[in-house]
Write the structure tokens for this entry.
Amino acid sequence: MSRLPVMSSKRVLAENAQDLAPAQKRLRKDADPVKPAATVIGTKRPALAATRAPICVIKQSVASTTSKGGNMKQPVASTGTKTGGTQKLKPCDLKGKVSDMVRNYQIKVKTLNQQNEVLQDSVSQSQRKIVQVEKELQIQRSQIGKLQVLAGVQDELEKVLSDKNFLQKELTNVEGKYRVMETLRDSQETELQTLKMKLSVQESTLARVQVNLRDFEEEVRSLKETVAQQKDELYAGEMERRRLHNTIQELKGNIRVFCRVRPLVGGGLPKHVQLATSDNKAITLAKTEESHTGKTADTQKNYNFSFDRVFGPRASQQEVFEEISLLVQSALDGYNVCCFAYGQTGSGKTYTMEGDEVDETRGVIPRAVQQIFKAAGKLGEQGWEFTFTASFVEIYNETLRDLLYTGKSSKRPEHEIRKTTSNEVTITNLTYERVSNEDQVLGLIALANQNRSTAQTAQNDRSSRSHSVFQLDIEGVNAGRDVKCKSTLCLVDLAGSERMVKSQSQGDRFKEMTAINGSLSNLGIVIAALANKESYVPYRNSKLTYLLQGCLGGNSKTLMFVNIAPEPDSFGETLNSLRFASKVNDCVIGTATANKK
């Protein structure tokens, strides 16, 4: 609250008190000094102290006070003379002055009271204003708080507006995507309708197909029964084929002999070798003999031979193999099969049995292997499963050598021919390779050719100095029929017979020639014993006949190639070879039986 009005009234009172001070000093000598009247702000009037001072003096003081208060006129200077420094008033004047002073004082008090009331009203108004201002201040403070809150709200509003703009952009993007999705939905709905139509079509088609399927299932069951019946018939037909095939081979003879004439180096056919154009089983050797007396003309002597088949110089490898393909087929039927080539050095035995690497010139061995695996694949469709084991051995100087051995020559093991309890011929320490395709067998044949003993002689640049024997053991199982079979395909390339005069062999070559001729002679002895049906057959006289005992002893289908050289100077060896082959062709051995369980 403002104290300004109260302070101004105090100043007025103080000033009045100062105006009274000189009058009091003047009245000290005459009377007791008059105490200044206490001014009381309010309705109460101040009590006047008893004074004995002259009225004129009091009046003068009051007049002076009144003049200083601003509401009274300045008193006129008192008349009279000073006596001894102190003015003395008359009693009548003093009384009048006191009366005036009292009146003036009362007026002044009244004025002061009025002023005090005015001041009180002003104070009340000020207080009311202060209260109002404080209220307004509180309102302003609350408004300031609200404004501060509004400032935070404004920041939030700006953030919200920013989020709103971002969301509007997102909304725009979403709306765009929504429109795209609506378009996609429309296309999907269209496609769905199309698919529904297709589905209804497919369902109707499925119903028809199911009906057809039931019909087909019935037909399949019928066909399965037919297939089973046909399998039985096929198996029976296969068994009948094997029986007839074996019968045909028996009619042809268990030991069959083919003769093959090697072509001349310059081509053509020499005069002393004559082949009938209408008969492919006959061959004639013609020899002109001079007259001993000289009186008669030279005579021509013919040597006629007949074999199962005679191949001329122009016969191809394929044509030769076609004649023995049925014999090779017998190996898969469970029969032991043996095929060997006989003839003098340089007559083409190795070419007939092995041939060259070109397909058209491949020999009997690779073609037989190819046919075996092809036929096994076809029989596999009828439930047969076959396993094949290959081995390759040579007989060099009456010693067995493993042609598939890959170790050091110094550690080469020794081999012996032995018979098992089932009367099968085996070789100890021999390498047996399990094979499953033609390429593996051809790889083994190539390895054997590298290891085989060959040498140059006067009759052949690369003469075989040993007998080579390739064996393929075959085991077949038909689990569905509970049938097993076991057989051996034996392909032999014999070393050529030689005459020392022609081959001009010396040293090791002479020793090799002696061993070769000895083993071939023993082979002739065995063939003769079989032809004469002797009780004792000397198989053990040589390693060759002992190893081929199973092929020559009856339980085998055997084929011999006799190869002859067409040169005139080989006439003697050719004649001997044909005579030996003729003996073999006349030989009758026991009927071969299939090894089946």
Residues 397 and 515 are 5 Å apart (CA to CA).
